[in-house]
Amino acid sequence: MDIPGDGTFLDSLGDPIYDAWVTWGSGGFDLEAIGVISRNMNFEIWQDLQGLTGGERGALADPDGDGIVNLMEYSAALMPLAPDFPSDLQSLIYEDGRVGLVFYRDERAVDLVYEVEVSDNLQNWEIIARSEHGGLMQPVHPYMPEITEKSASTIESIQVIREVRVRDIHANAPQRFMRIRVRK
Ligand SMILES: [Ca+2]
Ligand SMILES: [Ca+2]
Q: Which-ligand-closest: CA of 68?
């Protein structure tokens, strides 16, 4: 069980894809700076609310140098101008011979797609679960991973941050990798 390093690359359409296996802020979620409660946040609005200007802006920018690019900060309601600890962005669990991935998603981020992928070799990845438009993480056919979600944080009584846990579809594999991918 291992977590590979950062992997930001372009998909077949030239859109950036964000492998979220890098990070997550350990001080928990510092949500104050979001300020405005909206059920339909998007990345542009979020950048404005966070006060990002000039070179601080952009999906791949990392103005606080914590190794978490802005799109990932956005996906997990982290702070783009305050360092978060990468180890808290996501974590791997291992139970009963099965790997699982725990991460967080901001359900207001309706412009994001979150996908959980598994691999035996870091070459071929299979998508086993997906959340779109702020919706619940759902199994991707034909896979039936065990998925649990719970509220991880609230803002003014509105539950916005979800802790998502997805277990691997295979148990007792000699080698197994999981990652969360976030894209617009
Ligand atoms: Ca950052
Ligand atoms: Ca940060």
A: 1
Ligand 1 centre and the CA of 37: distance in Å? 22
Q: How far away, in angstroms, is 177 Cα from ligand 2 center?
A: 25
Domain hosting residue 68, numbered range: 8-86
pLDDT in tens, 85-107: 876 678 888 888 888 999 989 88
Query: Which ligand has the nearest atom to the CA of 76?
Result: 2
Q: Examine the domain organization and report whether 79 and 123 are in the same domain.
A: no
Q: How far apart are CA 152 and CA 166, in angstroms?
A: 15
Q: Is residue 3 part of a domain?
A: no
Q: How many domains would you assign to the chain?
A: 2
3-state secondary structure of 56: helix
Question: Does this model's pTM top 0.90?
Answer: no
Q: Could you tell me the CA-to-CA distances from 117 to 25, 109, 137 in Å, in that order? A: 22, 20, 13
